[in-house]
Design brief:
It is built from 25 helices and 30 strands. The protein is α/β, with parallel strands linked by helices and about 800 residues long. Among the domains are: about 90 residues, Alpha-Beta Plaits (2-Layer Sandwich); about 140 residues, Nucleotidyltransferase, domain 5 (2-Layer Sandwich), CATH 3.30.420.360; about 220 residues, Nucleotidyltransferase, domain 5. A ten-stranded mixed β-sheet has the order 6-13-7-8-12-9-11-10-14-15, with helices on both faces. A seven-stranded mixed β-sheet has the order 27-28-24-23-22-29-30, with helices on both faces. Helix 14 packs across helix 25, helix 16 packs across helix 19 and helix 20 crosses helix 21. The longest helix is centred in the last third of the chain and has 27 residues. It starts with a strand and ends with a helix.
Length: about 800
């Protein structure tokens, strides 16, 4: 009889893949076995006594067609076995611990079957907040090692009762080898305590359970800390104005929008417009926060919601319940809850009960806790639909650490570890032709986050038995990630590749779009806050001609001073003053427009000191940053306040102000394109006279914000078209955090397409610095492969 060894690679562990193999093999009359090992799933199979040989072909075809919902097949490799199998059945074997070449699935939202069980009064898991099966539940957040088995998760502390064990061992049960499988008799438990650590009395707790009591407390306007899957949330009633204001004060988060969680899509539609594509994202196993256009009153707020939820915004970030605990908590709510990260502003989320009891005590009135340990912090992912496609703004729960196959040409890359950037950090492992990106880890400027970053690096190296041959870092010498990478290289004697910040952005969007290694160069438009250029200056508004291996700077925004350095990022008025100085000069603008409110505001600042810093180049580095230009325009309109309280605040408020104020007849403010010998320069100076004239004539701020967006997008497209024609390219790659601005992203994409160019945007990894690590890894891999290819060519000759 024909027997085969079939290797299946991809996301095939912990997702119900072996039961699917077992079911299909039995249905087709095949015999043999299946097991997990370090490379994925290994199947040995042959036709039964009365089964046709072609049934193995049908088996492989059905395996792809009927792949479990959380699984992803990257490859099915078939080899003949020299000897026939001696068996009359098909069985599932225990996992085999071998060298790790497999992947780990992401945490997945509660599936419909489990959600139905917790609502069924006759089911033994009625109202049990840790119900799960192979199609849903925690993965990354509970894992300690691979292969993914219960003994290597935080569920090892909970021995299964006989009924759960029977489910776990039955290949026909959807809980077969569901590692977090549990029930009220044997699994984790949940309880409620007040800020002093005392459990409420039975009368206060109510007649059902701690979750029902928590719901009632939220209804009464209290603030709760809730231990979830990958960290803690802080929750309150989103319609309770005093509660939301109190949460802002206690958390010290004074302007950044809060995320919301709603019971179902019907509740979300009360407050936001919802497309079919956005609804599908919300209901997906990843269950991310989705940024949605709000149904607004005339004053821009949403009917029934507290005004402090998303000040200055026209979008709201909504998610659906993604764990049984959340489903039960919101079961009786026809309005949303705020569900924001359980931390003080800028700190990482709390993970364990003791840490939460200390750090969240000043914030939360009560805490809803449980005793299943969170092994790895996994924040909520954030997605926004722009230019017709979902764009991930933060890649974390539901997506990480699922690998991304690298584009054609990268299969032979050596193992690489890329350390990412300073802000919105994630790192990237390359091995076996794929990139494993960590979950969003945050800003490494914060000490707790930096420590967690190093711990997560160690975890991933151990999980995936990754031993890098090359390390890749950002060129900025003071980034914490660069310092860690440099120390690692020195300690282990490994080559260290420095990758320019915007080249990494360019390579990231190429890899995200599966562009082959040897494809022709593209024109990259890279717009962000800043990154260190290869000339030692600060870049941030770049046109690069390049590919994975190399690049050339062919255009950029005109550099303008950042008076005060980092202070200019925090205080947008500094950028406004520097932009005016670089245009006609502040003194001329003040003389021309003495009565404007913005003129009076700036006149109260230390103008002479700032002018001296700019003139002498003292702590006023010049930067081509597009982000700082947006900040300057926002400051001219009084947005962002005296000092922003979160990254990108002024620019985000500027986009919100412009949204809805743009139509086909909106004229843009002018910019000037100067052709230089080495690179073209886009100068924003001409827009300031037109903008201040509009201010003097009483033009509405929304109209001014709209005109800036239109003019800047037109200037970007015009520059790109000219450069593309000059250099003979047809593909344009868009990346950098500024492209998270939907108006700009959609306007530039539309303009490039109308000019006959092919725009590439990012979808699977963020265009902000959360995507840098993928770009760094791709550059390092491409250069290594090029050196290997050249060496082989020399050897052949």
């Amino acid at each position: 009889m024909k027997a085969e060894r079939i290797r299946v690679r991809g996301l095939v562990q912990g997702v119900g893949f072996r039961p699917t193999v077992w079911r299909l093999a039995r249905a087709l009359g095949l015999v043999g076995d299946v097991r997990n090992d370090g490379e994925g799933v290994l199947i040995r199979v042959q036709p039964g006594d009365s089964t046709e040989t072609e049934s193995i072909d049908r088996f492989c075809a059905r395996l792809r067609a009927e792949c479990p919902p959380l699984a992803r097949i990257d490859a099915i490799e078939r080899q003949p076995l020299e000897t026939a199998l001696v068996t009359q059945s098909f069985v599932i074997l225990a996992s085999e611990a071998t060298e790790i070449h497999t992947s780990l699935a992401a945490d997945a939202a509660t599936c419909p079957a489990c959600a139905s069980e917790i609502r069924d009064t006759s089911n033994r898991r009625y109202r049990y907040p840790f119900t799960n099966c192979t199609h849903c539940g925690p993965r990354l957040s509970i894992v300690r090692g691979l292969p993914y088995d219960r003994a290597r998760t935080s569920m090892a502390a909970f021995p299964m009762c006989p009924r759960c064990q029977a489910e776990y061992e039955d290949p026909g049960d959807r809980r077969f080898h569901a590692q977090p499988n549990a029930c009220p008799d044997c699994g984790p438990r949940v309880w409620l305590i007040d800020a002093d650590g005392a459990e409420p009395t039975a009368a206060d707790r109510g007649d059902r359970d701690a979750i029902a009591a928590a719901s009632r407390l939220l209804d009464a306007g209290r603030i709760l800390a809730i231990k979830g899957i990958g960290g803690f949330h802080l929750a309150c009633d989103a319609t309770n104005e005093p509660a939301v204001a109190e949460l802002r004060g206690r958390k010290r988060r004074f302007a950044k929008p809060f995320a919301l969680m709603a019971r179902d899509l019907a509740v979300i539609r009360t407050y936001c417009h919802l497309s079919d594509q956005e609804a599908e994202l919300l209901r997906s196993p990843a269950a991310p926060i989705v940024l949605l256009d709000r149904c607004a009153n005339a004053d821009g707020t949403s009917a029934g919601l507290a005004s402090a939820i998303a000040p200055g915004q026209v979008t709201l970030g909504f998610m659906l319940p993604y764990s049984p605990l959340h489903h039960l908590l919101l079961a009786d709510w026809d309005r949303p809850l705020i569900m924001t990260s359980g931390n003080l502003s800028d700190e990482p989320q709390c993970l364990d009960n003791q840490d939460a009891s200390q750090r969240l005590k000043p914030i939360a009135d009560f805490s809803l806790l449980h005793d299943r340990d969170i092994q790895n912090r996994v924040d909520d992912s954030v997605v926004r639909v722009m230019a017709g496609a979902p764009r991930r703004l933060r890649r974390a729960r539901g997506y990480a650490p699922a690998p991304r196959p690298l584009p054609p040409g990268f299969a032979e890359s050596p193992p690489i570890l890329a350390f990412g950037g300073e802000l919105k950090n994630c790192f990237c492992l390359v091995r076996d032709g794929e990139a494993i990106l960590s979950q969003h880890l945050g800003d490494l400027e914060e000490a707790r986050t930096s420590r967690e970053y190093e711990a997560t690096l160690r975890l991933y190296r151990d999980l995936f038995q990754h031993r890098p041959a090359i390390l890749a870092v950002d060129l900025h010498p003071d980034y914490r990630s660069t310092l860690i990478g440099r120390a690692w290289a020195e300690r282990e004697g490994l080559p260290l590749v420095g990758v320019q910040h915007h080249h990494a952005h360019l390579a990231s969007v190429l890899a995200d779009n599966d562009r082959p290694l040897d494809a022709d160069p593209v024109l990259g438009i890279l717009l962000d806050g800043l990154g260190l250029g290869d000339d030692g200056t600060l870049w941030g508004g770049e046109f690069l001609l390049g590919d994975y291996r190399d690049y050339r700077r062919v255009g950029h925004l005109k550099p303008v001073a950042m008076p005060g350095g980092t202070q200019a990022i925090l205080e947008p008025w500094r950028n406004l003053l520097a932009q005016l100085e670089a245009a006609d000069g502040w003194d001329a603008m003040r003389a021309r427009y003495p009565d404007l409110e913005v003129t009076r505001r700036l006149s109260d600042k230390p103008i002479e000191l700032i002018q001296t810093l700019i003139e002498r180049g003292l702590n006023a580095p010049r930067s081509s940053s597009a982000g700082r230009l947006f900040d300057a325009v926002a400051a001219a309109l009084g947005l962002g306040g005296e000092r922003v309280t979160y990254e990108g605040q002024a620019a985000i408020e500027l986009e919100a102000l412009a949204t809805g104020a743009i139509d086909a007849s909106t004229p843009g403010y002018p910019c000037r394109l100067d052709q230089e010998s080495s690179a073209w320069q886009l100068d924003a100076a001409p827009l300031w006279g037109a903008l201040f004239t509009d201010l003097a004539q009483g033009v509405a701020p929304a109209r001014i914000a709209a005109r800036f967006h239109v003019g800047f997008a037109d200037a970007i497209v015009d520059t790109a078209v000219r450069l593309a024609r000059t250099h003979g390219v047809t593909t344009v790659a868009l990346s950098g955090g500024v492209f998270q601005n939907r108006i700009l992203m959609e306007s530039v994409t539309k303009g490039l397409s109308a000019a006959g160019l092919n725009p590439l945007g990012q979808r699977h990894v963020p265009s902000n610095d959360g995507g840098l690590a993928l770009g760094q890894a791709s550059v390092a891999a491409a250069r290594a492969l090029t050196r290997t290819s050249r060496r082989m060519e020399r050897d052949e000759t």
